[in-house]
Amino acid sequence: MQKTLTEKEAENFLEKEGFKVIKRASIKSSEEVKTAAKTIKFPWAMKLSSTKIAHKAKVGGVILDINNSMSAQEAFDKLSKIEGFEEAIVQEMFSGEEAIIGIKKTPEFGHIILFGHGGINVEKEKDVSFRVLPTTKKELKEMIKETKFYKILEEKDVTLEEIEKNIDKIQSLVKKHPNIIELDINPLTISKNKAKVIDARIVLEE
To answer: CA 146 to CA 131: how far, in whole Å?
Structure first.
């Protein structure tokens, strides 16, 4: 059997394992929107969270640049009307370059790690590279440099240290939790010398 974690569960899981996750709150009612406004600074991103919907952006389930409480209420009302809605996640906005780091467990090779240019166009661009785990830090650095995204990071003077740390953490995570079938951090947003998990998806083998 497989279990797909909600976004909240996936992000909480990663945070407990030492990943830096963006400040956030889950909301299920208009009252909780008001409560979140007291602890999370605007501007916000608000996202649909549902175990039934894998690609929330495709159903209009992501609203960005929410600057005040009135806009937040309007955004929540809109998301709550989407079929399959379970809750919404509000997050502080954090800008930077968007990477994807992923894990997939295969019958042939076991766990494979992926790195590349993340965001909503990841499937269209397909700017990713792969390695079979376990692997060395040298091989992981080579994996990063194989992507076109690496040149963008160089041009923006973004340090690779935080990316390498997160990839290394994922490799350790799989050793600790071999029942992870799939894991996607998309995006891991990188700004100069900071990197934060903005969105995550995890599928476990039970």
So the answer is: 11
